[in-house]
Design a protein that fits this description.
Blueprint (H helix, E strand, L loop, with lengths): L5 E10 L4 E3 H5 L6 H8 L3 E3 L7 H16 L8 E5 L10 H9 L6 E4 L5 H14 L6 E8 L17 E11 L5 E9 L7 E2 L11 H5 L6 E2 L1 H21 L10 E4 L4 H9 L12 H4 L6 H12 L7 E8 L3 E8 L1
Parallel strand pairs: 4-5, 4-6, 11-12
Antiparallel strand pairs: 1-7, 2-3, 6-7, 8-13, 9-10, 12-13
Helix pairs in contact: 3-4, 7-8
The structure holds coenzyme A.
């Protein structure tokens, strides 16, 4: 539609903890090996928060970087949306901690819970406010510290996760070939138990017993998640190309949720995407949940792998079950 306003990304930022946990570090505490983890997942190392470091601290660093990249001040923002499932506290929202830390005053700030799809859900939600003209400058964050809820005695799940944060600034554009041109979201609550943290909510409020039973840790049905992930990533890629009339040659980069290299390769090979059009940094960060896509996007921009004029598809899925994708013209 000529003249229609879209949301476009004007700034990128990310942050990761200093502390590196390699597969060899995990070998010392678990019955596992660097070879098994690297071969089955593509992960070599991940970043893990230190004592006292929180999700909102990483989110704040990512947010400041995104604001600097967009060349705007915190007091110019109209809204903050933060995708996370590992907030500093059950409430208030981590977005409110970020708002305070960056010095934004009175603007709305809320968290959005869609696990690994959290950033794409957040981008989609925030884009609506920009497209309708309600808000002009919106900060969208994806931030998680799943190491805080990972069971480091469960080799089937804890090896996957790393901590991090990524953020973008959205602003309106009327340029016809620019911005967030397509978004898609979905959920299937019947798959809630594929990946979940059972304790600490109203179903199993925290007691000594829930802690003894380790209900405050991530429980995952790895193989079921794997099948769901391949199917959904394929479906999302197809949707993001088809709805925009794009073929593989028209797409400059797919930036998928950094979930598992085998899942990423299976899904993208369905459309014969060459791997140089698929951005991967899982080897260094693991699965950082909602942070994974914005962290990878920021890295891809900084490396010059994508830039102004690039057509990028982002695809994510996670606990819920949830899934979401977007086609973005940078
Ligand atoms: C978790 C995952 C890596 C496991 O890989 P897999 O190839 O499916 O492995 P399986 O679970 O079938 O286990 C195969 C064997 O390896 C063992 N194993 C599991 N984790 C291991 C580890 N870290 N190190 C060594 N061996 C391990 C299992 O015990 C099993 O042994 P057995 O055959 O003697 O019973 C894989 O299923 C996966 O990535 N799933 C998706 C999970 C995910 O991405 N979750 C987040 C979604 S947002």
């Amino acid at each position: 539609m000529p003249g229609a306003v879209r949301a476009t990304i004007t700034g990128f930022g990310s942050a990761a903890p200093e502390r590196v946990m390699t597969n060899h570090d995990l070998e010392k505490i678990l019955d596992t090996s660097d070879e098994w983890i690297a071969k089955r997942t593509g992960i070599k190392e991940r970043r893990i928060v230190s004592d006292g470091e929180t999700t909102s601290m990483l989110a704040t660093r990512a947010a400041k970087n995104a604001l600097a990249s967009a060349k705007i001040q915190a007091d110019e923002l109209d809204l903050i949306v933060c995708g996370t499932v590992s907030p500093d506290m059950p409430f208030p929202a981590s977005a409110c901690f970020v708002q305070d830390a960056i010095g934004a005053k009175n603007i709305p700030a809320f968290d959005l819970s869609a696990a690994c799809s959290g950033f794409v859900y957040g981008l989609t939600t925030a884009s609506q406010f920009v497209e309708t003209g309600k808000y002009e400058k919106v900060l969208v964050i994806g931030a998680d510290c799943l190491s805080r809820v990972a069971d480091f005695t469960d080799r089937g799940s804890c090896i996957l996760f790393g901590d991090g944060a990524g953020a973008v600034v959205l602003e309106p554009t009327s340029e016809p070939d620019k911005g967030v041109v397509h978004t898609v979201m979905g959920a299937d609550g019947s798959g809630w138990d594929f990946i979940h943290v059972p304790g600490g909510g109203t179903r199993h409020p925290t007691t000594h017993e829930t802690v003894d039973e380790k209900l405050h840790y991530v429980k995952m049905r790895g193989r079921d998640v794997y099948k769901f992930a391949v199917d959904k990533m394929q479906w999302l890629l197809g949707d993001c190309m088809e709805k925009c009339g794009l073929g593989v040659d028209d797409v400059d980069m797919v930036i998928p949720h950094q979930v598992n290299i085998r899942i990423i390769e299976s899904a993208t090979s369905k459309y014969n995407f060459p791997m140089d059009k698929v951005y991967v940094n899982i080897d260094r960060y693991g699965n950082t949940s909602a942070a994974s896509i914005p962290l990878a996007m920021d890295e891809a921009v900084k490396k010059g792998a994508v830039g102004p004029g690039s057509t990028v598809i982002i695809v994510a899925f996670g606990a819920g079950l949830t899934w979401a994708g977007a086609t973005i013209k940078l």
